[in-house]
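Researcher: We're teaching a course module on how sequence relates to structure. For the next exercise, students receive a sequence and then see the predicted structure as tokens, so they can try to spot secondary structure elements on their own. Here is the exercise chain.
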Amino acid sequence: MRRIKLVEVRSELGAGTRGASMGIDALKVACLNKGSDYFRRFNSVQVPDLNHVLFDRNHFPHARHIDSIYTVQKAIAGTVEQTLRLGEFPLVLAGDHSSAAATIAGIKAAYPHKTLGVVWVDAHADIHSPYTTPSGNVHGMPLAISLGDDNRACQRNQPEPETEFFWQRLQDLGEPGPKLTPEHLVYVVVRDTEAEENAIIERLGIKNYQLAEVKEKGTRQVAREIYERLRFCDLVYISFDVDSLDSRFSKGTGTPVEEGLNVEQAISLCRALLENDRVVCFEMVEINPTLDSENTMAQNAFDILEAATDAIQNRLRMEEVVSR
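Model: And here is the predicted structure for the students to work with:
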């Protein structure tokens, strides 16, 4: 049977609030408290982080620490690519969400001739560029990297040439050019966006299943519709930001937002999405235990992670039975 490989990414260079680098360790604490053997069952690999540069002066106001982020992302992309080439399923546990651009680049490097679909479960659209960002935080930019769309029509910043250099390198990571087309991207419960993001989402026609629609249809029907939208994709990557949960359940994340999923909905959605045999990678990001005195976020996230992993393993077992 194909094995799951945990890819641990402790970088928080793309975040605006400190502490996401400790998210993986918070998950491990939640695992221990639950009496689970989860982290003993799977091989893991740690991608080196450069979080020490957070103590240095930032030279890139419109894409903070983008030079170091590029170095980290090269390592993430290489690890994801190698994991897939070895026939394993990369389950990425990461600090801030900028890592997702590298995960996507790694998938495309492993499967350069296949069409990739992305399901983005998140409170935020993460589709800013250095030209539109209000904060300079790169965790708000991974989809602009993957789509290769700078949204110049809504430009508000003039990034320095050095920023533009590294931005282009990020967009060309793995293979030159876009890794993803807008019709192969689906948002779930995105609800905290800026005007520039609203403009590009409307221009590109990206579907967003907001909470009311998820409640009305149920998670299984939403998953069915998502896969109908992605029917021409050979592969699917699912990116789960814990701030997709309602802020009642997600205090331990840098940017909690009201009107999100509850834990049961998140578990049900992840199960339904991960039963599809085209899913080649799952990623969970943005747990920040420094904002959460009782580690509740990580406990909730660990329950979701266990359910997601069970769904992946069940599917891999089915694939093995069929292949015999």
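Model: If you want an answer key for the exercise: The chain has a mean pLDDT of 97. The longest helix spans residues 296-323.
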